[in-house]
Amino acid sequence: MLIDVHAHFLHDRSPRTDWRERNASRLRAGERVGITVHVASILGSWGATSPIYFPSPADVQYGNDFLLALQRSHPSSVRGYAVVNPNFQSHALSELDRCLDAGMIGIKLAASRRADDPLLDPICRVARERGVPMLHHIWQHRRRDYPGQEASDATELGALAARHPEVNFLLAHIGGGGDWLHSLAAVRNLANVYIDLSGSGVDGGMLEACLEAAGVERLLWGCDLTIDTGWAKLRYLEHLLAPPELEQVGWRNAARIFPPRAFPAD
Amino acid sequence: MRVDVNTFVGAYPFRRVPGTSAEALLQAMERVSVDQAWVSHLPSVFWRDPAAGNPWLYEVARRHQALRPVPAVHPGLAGWEESIREARDQATPAVRCDPTYYGLDPSGAEMRTLVQTCGAEQMPLMMAVRLEDARQRHPNDRAPELPAAAVRSLVRTDPAVRLIITHADRGFVEEVHFGSTPQESARIWWDICWIWGPPEDHLQTLVQTIGAERFVFGTGQPLRLPETGGAKLDLLDLQASQRSAIESGNVSGKGLSAAR
Questions:
Q1: Which sign, positive or negative, has the C-alpha torsion B220, A199, B28, B9?
Q2: Of residues A21, A26, A201, nearest to B133 (C-beta)
């Protein structure tokens, strides 16, 4: 059993004409690596009709619908995060209800609103009531505002996590760019923040630092946009960890924080 | 046989990196089935005289047969030609120069002279595009990344020079390859450490569009996990001959090894 907690799929209304090939490539590579379940999200129209990180309600809905269809067509290997834009609060809350009722197993927030903003509190209350975790896009040590996103860093996610101790948060892609040491220090003592190991970064020493900061019980394996680096980290973890610990990172920790029966082996 | 052309020994100044000793490198090589590593001295990339790390590098290589030294050359310092002569005498597989880290214009007069000398000496020249992701570098680690335009310019400077470029991504590789004549691009080899695998499939695409003969196995360890190289290859749809070429054939083949 191996769960990729940070996957994405594309769709026919995204700017990518190769969306089918990319989706197929993810599934094919997943089989090669041994990924049992891709827990995925679709960020609106991926920029086609609204910005990737500021998706319109219509684009949010189309992306979520596409992912729900993908989940239905791949019932054993694809699960969905419901993506919402907190700036459209009533739409976000109704969309969460719709998607979670339809079988999605988590919430994905990207960078439409800073993580410590009060607008995220009602969304966190839904996460608590529905018993689903929240994957939050993170810029590891945000030193300024970057164009195209209202990015958050671990300190800001930590503030949200401290306000909602009964919700489990996934700090996205520790290897996804930025100063991961800053992030690890910020969430070291937050028991409800899990470290998603995905991202193209494969820095020597990063996985050891993650283990030291969060412990094996708060690490979650994932790939994001690069399955090759995900596989490399998994291979290195085989060297770092005993088999039971590797199982924790590879799937057991995920199975614990996602809803019961979210995955085939549950 | 697997040759990792992109490895380092020695401490990194901007963060704690485990496994920077020669012994740790050898252990990592064994773990990921690398038979031979081309190794550079990491601290001296940041020294005012990078060649000052070469004696230590040669000594490390003397003690460990699986390590082949890639000494540094700073063409802006008087007497730099001696570094090339020493490399030739030591039968190194290449020399390296990281102009932006040395504060040199990457396509300026010093670099053009170095390229001409490397061409005349039939000594491959290795350059890194970057060592870390720009988004995570230390606030005081401000050297620019190697520009693709510089590589295009340098390969045109001398018809005999051969370049090994590490840490390049797909866009960089394509810009240089298709911005050069076939004769020029045939003298450039790219390591695979920074090229994405699936689902974006950048490496698979490049193997198809540029050819497996242009790529060499490199990891950037210990700054990067050495497991990445093998994972990238295991996710490619390659003929056995293509995989063998990337893993070792291209560095031992006529194009890159004729000088040694």
A1: positive
A2: A201
- CATH number, domain of B169, equals 3.20.20.140
Q: What type of residue is B101?
A: Y
**Domain interval for residue B173:** 3-257
User: A227-240 vs A206-214: helix axis angle to the nearest 10?
Assistant: 60
Quick check: A264 pLDDT over 90?
no
Tell me whether residues B18 and A205 touch, CB distance under 8 A.
Answer: yes
Decide: A124 and A98 in contact? Cβ < 8 Å.
no
User: Mean pLDDT throughout A67-72?
Assistant: 98
**Minimal Cα distance from B233: which residue of A?**
A228
Closest CA to A238 of A266, A212, A207, A264: A207
Global confidence as pTM: 0.97
Q: For residue B84, give the nearest of B54, B43, B46 by alpha carbon.
A: B54
pLDDT tens for each residue of B144-197: 999 999 999 999 999 999 999 999 999 999 999 999 999 999 999 999 999 999
What are A95-131's pLDDT values in tens digits? 999 999 999 999 999 999 999 999 999 999 999 999 9
Contact call for A22 and B199, based on CB within 8 A: yes
| CATH, domain range A9-194 | 3.20.20.140
Domain count, chain B: 1
A202 in contact with chain B, both atoms CB, cutoff 8 A = yes
Given pLDDT bands bounded at 50, 70 and 90, which one contains residue B260? very low
CB pairs below 8 Å between A and B: how many?
97
Residue extents of the structural domains in chain A: 9-194
A137–B contact, CB cutoff 8 A: no
Query: What pLDDT was estimated at residue A266?
Result: 57
**Is the Cβ of B31 closer than 8 Å to some Cβ of chain A?**
yes
The percent of residues above 90 in pLDDT, for chain A, comes to 97
